């Protein structure tokens, strides 16, 4: 039996939105789901116990960063990533491809792999499909990702065509190198903003029969309209009995649209990154807590929220902490934002099960305003 399996619970009859369960060696979790990002084997400012209280069923860690520091051999010696970070739920590790390709002039791509300079000390490093698989098997994550080339935006057709073909060849090499039956290897669909290349990528990866598929190369600078167009073209061609993962997306409007297109899994650093900038996520849009409107506002960050911050502290207090550069204030915002997204995904799932997802989407988009509220 595959390490990773998908169970469909309900599909919205009018859209592609679906509710399911993904089963892994470290437990099952409901979908659609947002995965908190723990780049360095830690979600910034949040403990594993807090993540469980927030409702997180799976977290993501970063192969590139753990490859550089502390090294996958040390994590393997510690008993794997679950023991190393004291997290007994599911873990997904990315392949390192996106981070490597974002290095620009600091890396060189060949058919064999990618040579690059460490952003930590400038030392020369090499990642290939085989190295990525070795690192991720050392880490022992439940879901591991194929090493791919993330196509930048914009990219001309010939570059995108050659890059997509290389990603396919690398995917096969990843599959050949991955030998741990307790892990599930996902293929990553590429193709840039070209529909024929995305169709070709899907067809070639599906033929390899991965236990799950990610849609990569989106949210890389293109308009949201173009991203949704590529999603609309791509997702319906993926197997209905396998998990579908949209990489690097975490704003509520994009999550709703991704779910509508049939995506099951999402990840992004967005909720903790904006928290560190003093921003809370709400159903109406983002709330910039530094703004003077909240100086003597003794209500919670958001009415009805059950997170630790909203249960115990006021906007005025959190504003004071943030303006005083107190770490606790940023932690409270991170806890709130992560809980907001878990609740958001749970309510979307319930709407799908109750066959009212279309209404949920319309109501949300009518009330959601991403612009900062009460800006000074």
Shape: globular
Strand content: 15-25%
Tell me the number of strands: 16
Described by strand count, sense and barrel closure, the largest sheet is: 8 strands, parallel
Name the structural class. alpha/beta
Strand order of the largest sheet: 4-14-13-12-11-10-6-5
Annotation field: number of helices? 15
N- to C-terminal separation? 57 Å
Helix content: 40-55%
Average residue pLDDT: 96
Radius of gyration: 20 Å
* Low-pLDDT windows of residues: none
What does this entry look like structurally?
The relative contact order is 0.13. It contains 15 helices and 16 strands. The N and C termini lie far apart (57 Å). The model has no long low-confidence stretch (mean pLDDT 96). Strands 4-14-13-12-11-10-6-5 form an eight-stranded parallel beta sheet. It is of the alpha/beta class and 376 residues long. It has helices spanning 48-54, 63-68, 72-77, 81-85, 97-101, 129-139, 157-177, 195-208, 224-234, 252-260, 270-276, 308-312, 315-323, 327-353, 357-367, and strands at 5-11, 18-24, 27-31, 33-35, 58-61, 90-93, 107-109, 114-117, 124-127, 143-145, 184-189, 212-215, 244-246, 265-267, 279-282, 285-288. 41% of the residues lie in helices and 18% in strands. The longest helix is centred in the C-terminal third of the chain and has 27 residues, at 327-353. Strand 10 (143-145), helix 7 (157-177) and strand 11 form a beta-alpha-beta unit.
């Amino acid at each position: 039996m595959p390490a990773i399996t998908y169970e469909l619970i309900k599909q919205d009859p009018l859209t592609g939105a679906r509710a399911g369960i993904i089963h892994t060696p470290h437990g099952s979790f409901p979908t659609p789901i947002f995965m908190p990002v723990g780049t360095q084997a830690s979600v910034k400012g949040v403990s594993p116990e807090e993540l469980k209280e927030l409702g997180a069923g799976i977290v993501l860690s970063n192969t590139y960063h753990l490859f550089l520091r502390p090294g996958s051999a040390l994590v393997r010696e510690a008993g794997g990533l679950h023991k190393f970070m004291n997290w007994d739920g599911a873990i997904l590790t990315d392949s390192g491809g996106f981070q490597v390709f974002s290095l620009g002039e600091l890396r060189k791509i060949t058919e064999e792999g990618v040579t690059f300079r460490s952003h930590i000390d400038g030392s020369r490093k090499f990642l290939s499909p085989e190295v990525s698989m070795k690192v991720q098997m050392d880490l022992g994550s439940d879901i591991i990702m194929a090493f791919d080339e993330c196509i930048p935006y914009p990219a001309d057709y010939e570059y995108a065509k050659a890059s997509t073909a290389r990603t396919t060849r690398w995917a096969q090499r990843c599959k050949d190198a991955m030998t741990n039956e307790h892990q599930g290897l996902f293929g990553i669909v590429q193709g840039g903003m070209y529909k024929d290349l995305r169709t070709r990528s899907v067809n070639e990866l599906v033929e390899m029969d991965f236990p799950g598929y990610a849609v990569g190369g989106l949210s890389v600078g293109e308009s949201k309209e173009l991203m949704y167009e590529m999603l609309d073209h791509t997702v319906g061609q993926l197997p209905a009995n396998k998990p579908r993962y949209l990489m690097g997306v975490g704003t509520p409007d994009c999550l709703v649209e991704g779910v509508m297109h049939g995506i099951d899994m999402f990840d992004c650093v967005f909720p903790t990154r904006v928290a560190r900038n003093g921003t809370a996520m709400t159903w109406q849009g983002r709330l910039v807590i530094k703004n003077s409107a909240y100086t003597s506002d003794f209500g919670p960050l958001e009415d009805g929220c059950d997170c630790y911050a909203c249960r115990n502290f006021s906007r005025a207090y959190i504003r004071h902490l943030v303006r005083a550069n107190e770490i606790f204030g940023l932690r409270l915002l991170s806890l709130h934002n992560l809980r907001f997204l878990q609740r958001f995904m749970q309510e979307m799932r319930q709407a799908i099960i109750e066959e009212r997802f279309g209404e949920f989407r319309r109501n949300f988009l009518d009330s959601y305003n991403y612009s900062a509220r009460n800006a000074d």
